[in-house]
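Running this now, will post back.
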Amino acid sequence: MNIYRTTARVVGAMYLAGFVVGIAGDGLVKSVLGAPDYLSTLSANSMTVAIGAMLWMIAVVGDAAHGILMYPILKQHHERIAVGYLAARIVDAIFIALMVLFILVQIPLGSEYLKAAAPDAFYLQALGTLLTEARFYAYEIGMSTLGLSGLMLGYTLYKARLVPRFVAVWGLVGYAIIFVGMVSEMMGSGLGLASSIPGGLWEVFMGVWLIAKGFNPSAFVPDVVVSDVVAPEPAKPEIHKRQRELSAA
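Update: finished.
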């Protein structure tokens, strides 16, 4: 049980750290790339963008680590869901890593934009717009996958009673909203940011809960301790012979 308690604390700390670095990284990146004609100021603010991208990379590592750490816990209750959750978190991490790549590629693009003549500047702006759209799509696909993984997690938490039922239900609802919101965002609904709020608040609460309380110990299958059993000594041949003689008499 000690290993599960440690895992709960690590996962809880990662929930809180992921929330912080995700918001900080997003804020730094948008402060530069969200400005009009951002290519003209990108070169001067490249360090801000790079730091924001690196913060997002920390979140990427955390996403993959979530799947790895939770796999042995979820496997006790539903092996297929454990595999699915691990796979979904890795896919989520891959798409967020692609988003980071699209961010970093724009740093040299900004330098070239300052040196370009009018015709080339137009093409660089078009390329910047394309990379921005690719960044948004990578983020939305990654977050949609996060929503699916969260539904698998919430279902297992609920069925196995790893946490109180109300916490599991909150997670299920929050991740369902993330999934629907991000899928609709790819269709232009504009609900992407708002849809992440319930799930984001759940992750903060879950992080604190896991650090303070951990998983419900009664939900785990205890290790079976096999006691030594003394086997009866085999009967001696002469005893069997005497028993047959008595039976015949």
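Residues 18 and 59 are 5 Å apart (CA to CA). More later if anyone needs it.
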